[in-house]
Amino acid sequence: MLKLKNINVSFGNNHILHNLSCDVKSGDFIVILGVNGAGKSTFFDTIAGKIKPKNGTITLDNTDITHLNEQQRASMITRIFQNTRLNSVGSLTVRQNLAIAHYSRRNARLVNGMQAMPNKRAEKLIVNLGMNPSILEKPMNALSGGQRQLIAFVMATQLTPKILLLDEPTAALDPQAATKLLNYAAQFIKQHHITTLLITHDPYLALNMGNKIWILENGTIPRQFSSKEKKNLNPDELIGHIDYAKITPQK
Q: Are 136 and 94 in contact (CB under 8 A)?
């Protein structure tokens, strides 16, 4: 479905991705682990079209999309960022944000899009999240981080994408909000058979979600684990862990 072949990305003398090649199958839910600086966000930027690789090719359903920009790929690839404020327009209401997302891939002007969003559809989307429809009239800035991420997920999947990129979507959330988001996302992704890539620093999350684990190291993907192989993995050995025994108070 999605293939990256010999992708190289550099910023000056800083080489981020090195001859990276990978193959994402239709229906895959791949969890990507890697330490800071491994190239995870650059990897997603390259898939989404925000960054153009120095060389290499990217194909989606056997169509070369290497030279398509982010906007041109938006009808096929959507992304949710860890920063909740990057996923929506904070000054607009929830209803307006949903309307913009609903018409973002269609030839509809912004004002027309906001006016044309069916009230019943917007209310149904919110009720499915376990929220009161009254939240539709609140500005996104007034919501909690967990609420914003849940709504951002709905915005990103209103028109089912071919590829869904989840860029550490729970990084800024408390455990309860993260659990609610991941539970909703897992069920929705399975129901609609959405090909998904999820970046995280949490090896336990990687072992409990998705059908594959990829380890991104120094701009490449040297280790890939199937669903069966995941069962025998030690989470503490995937990308390391906090060694609390080495943390001592100052005297």
A: yes
Q: Which domains does the chain have, with CATH numbers?
A: 2-91+139-246 (3.40.50.300)
> Is the whole model's pTM more than 0.85, yes or no?
yes
- Give the three-class secondary structure for 157: helix
The four Cα atoms 178, 183, 185, 186 give a dihedral, to 10 degrees, of 130
Find, among 188, 151, 195, the residue nearest to 169 by Cα: 151
Which alpha helices (H) appear in 170-226, and where do they start and end? 175-192, 203-208
Q: What is the pLDDT of residues 223-234, one digit of tens each?
A: 999 999 998 998
How many CA atoms are closer than 13 Å to the CA of 142, on its beta-carbon side?
10
Name the H helices within 14-171. Answer: 40-48, 70-73, 94-103, 110-116, 119-128, 145-157
Residue 32 reports pLDDT greater than 50:
yes
Q: Say if CB 167 and CB 82 are below 8 A apart.
A: yes
